[in-house]
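Quarterly update, task 2.4: calcium ion-bound model.
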Amino acid sequence: MGKINGLCPERRSHMKQIGIVAVVVLFGLMLVSSVQADAKLVASPSSALILADGDYDGDGLADLAVFRSDGGQWAIKDITRVYFGKDMDVPASGDYNGDGTANIAIYRAGLWAVRDVTRQYYGRAGDISVPADYDGDGIDDVAIYRPGLGVWAVSDITRMYFGVNSYPLPADYNGDGTSDIGIFRTYTGLWAVAGITRSYYGQEGDMPVVLDYDGDATADRGIFRQIIVPPSALWAIQGITRVNYGTPGDYPVPADYNVSGQGEIGIFRWNSGLWSIRDVTRTYFGAGEDSIPVAK
Ligand SMILES: [Ca+2]
Ligand SMILES: [Ca+2]
Ligand SMILES: [Ca+2]
Ligand SMILES: [Ca+2]
């Protein structure tokens, strides 16, 4: 039997079949991975990513930054590129030493690792990291939310029950300089802030986007709604604005990018690395399927 390129015809035919199967499997994996990538954006407590601070150089502007979970790279535009953390770590940037700049930090099932600052254990697997400045001393505090029980535990400050299986949203809702314990329940649109307020805004599937959008020093409630047909994304900020910006699959990345004192609406598109910040900038940085925006 004659050989072609070292393989008999039957073998080559088999290899061809394997090749076709491999392509089909690969395409299947690509589909699965693109679905998974989109699944990251489904609003649920487990998709919560709470950062305390995203001003990595202390100039007062939010910086364009991503954490690449596959390899643990932090890429912060015009500032730094370092490796810290690994796959499955949750970014937990915040100013943990009160020097006015955000520290690179990760949360891993109870471990809090703050680059060049500290390494400590607080919380356990299944807890969601919710760092913020809960006592107003200018230092962001290590804190966790345990969705199944509705436990909030803030290291050395407080421990309480508030909101089972909700989306944790610590922010300064009354403008007194401390972060308040707050939740959004996506399936009813309930917003509740401990000791302060309770109201309804939004609907099932909405992602909460809390920020001070009008510059009055209070956090404003808002939702990001992905609309499939025709593809668009609605931003509705209670009492302030309602605008279409972005498309389904975009990450909402609202923050104050230009020291206006007001938060800007903005999106990050992971496949191209597009950062589109309304009325501020449109630039490309940090593309990647594993890129998680860490701007605040
Ligand atoms: Ca900055
Ligand atoms: Ca504090
Ligand atoms: Ca407050
Ligand atoms: Ca406000």
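Highlight for this quarter: Residues 9-39 form the longest helix (31 residues).
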